[in-house]
Design a protein that fits this description.
By secondary structure, the chain is α/β, with parallel strands linked by helices. The chain has a single domain, classed as Sugar-phosphate isomerase, RpiB/LacA/LacB (Ribose 5-phosphate Isomerase B, Chain: A, 3-Layer(aba) Sandwich). The chain contains six helices and five strands, in the order βαβαβαβαβαα. The protein has a five-stranded parallel beta sheet with strand order 2-1-3-5-4, sandwiched between helices. Helix 4 links the parallel strand 4 and strand 5. The longest helix has 14 residues. The radius of gyration is 14 Å and the shape is globular. The N and C termini lie far apart (35 Å). The relative contact order is 0.18.
Length: 147
């Protein structure tokens, strides 16, 4: 029997509403989630939440993560500073699936200001349904990791 899937989610103030919608979506699907903040819409610093989610992935506390900031750019950059993290900013479900299949992405990043809850849920579902294909992609992912 395998361990239940656990996701870690985080956002800054600009991604707070979309993160809440995704937490609700995961709850309906019966998927456990760790909410690493923020917990309000007051201005805050996205690197804090990127590091918290990335730490959950790196430590094994969560299998995958989701991060949301205004554009998704800053929070993805911050998460990718953590060794072993491959955070991918996506804008559609196909790219979300390909990020898992080809890049073994372990954190999905979304733009809170331009992604609807329905599109975010579709991206998340595609991300969760996809598996890493390995093969030539494993070689390429290996070239990404620091030496």
């Amino acid at each position: 029997m395998s361990a239940p899937l656990v996701l870690s989610l985080g956002s800054d103030h600009a991604g707070f509403a979309l993160k809440r919608a995704l937490l609700a979506h995961l709850a309906v699907r019966g998927i456990a989630a760790l909410d690493r903040g923020t917990h309000a819409e007051e201005s805050c610093d996205y690197p804090v939440y990127a590091r918290a989610v990335a730490a959950d992935i790196a430590s094994g506390a969560a299998a995958l993560g989701v991060l949301v900031c205004s554009t998704g750019v800053g929070i993805s950059i911050a998460a990718n500073k953590v060794p072993g993290i491959r955070a991918a900013l996506v804008h559609d479900a196909e790219t979300a699936a390909l990020a898992r299949r080809h890049n073994d992405a372990n954190i999905l990043c979304l733009a809170g200001r331009s992604t609807s809850p329905a599109l975010a849920a579709a991206c998340l579902d595609a991300f969760l349904a996809a598996g890493f294909e390995g093969g030539r992609h494993a070689r390429r992912v290996g070239l990404i990791e620091p030496r």
